[in-house]
TrEMBL record:
UniProt name for this protein: Bifunctional pyr operon transcriptional regulator/uracil phosphoribosyltransferase PyrR
CDD domains assigned: PRTases_typeI (cd06223)
Xref: InterPro entries: PRTase-like, PRTase_dom, PyrR_bifunctional
UniProt-listed NCBIfam families: PRK05205.1-5 (NF003549)
An MF annotation (GO) of this entry: uracil phosphoribosyltransferase activity
Signal peptide positions (record): none
UniProt entry keywords in alphabetical sequence: Glycosyltransferase, Transferase
Coiled-coil region: none
EC number assigned by the record: 2.4.2.9
Amino acid sequence: MQKRLVLDQTQISIIISRFCHQLIENHDDFDNTVLLGLQPRGAMVLDRIVQRMREIRQLNLKYGYLDATFHRDDFRRRDLPLKANETRIDFLIENKKVILVDDVLYKGRSVRAAMDAMIAYGRPLKVELMVLIDRKYTRDFPIRPNYYGRQVNTLESQYVSVEWQSQGFPEDAIWITEKESK
């Protein structure tokens, strides 16, 4: 299987720092802004952002983890049922600016499902999207990120793999690989 490195550990760290500075520029003191990591992989990106934000500036960040499994349009179309992840949001998002955080934006279906799921916590004032990787030219929905680390051109036969040290990989890295043929 061929693999092409998109981002290495140093580049990912730089992007996380850039995201934090962009958020500080755009959201002042975060009194009316919350961050939601899309479960499961967006939560890992959010954890790094929160950690880095605390290093840069002492802010009272409201953040949580959102699972959109039961809001997906393909939930009932799978051979095996999807396993839901934990949603941890201990605040309302009514009239708040919400930043949805995920690792890879592909077709836009997960983001659409997340927008449906977050309505249970109130109606947001504004929603922004932050992703490490934006797979251009692949959308099924008219969704695009407000913040992205890198845009990549990929084929349907390719997969973007995000590896984290915390998951047992040698270092944080993002790869493009070929999907296995069935």
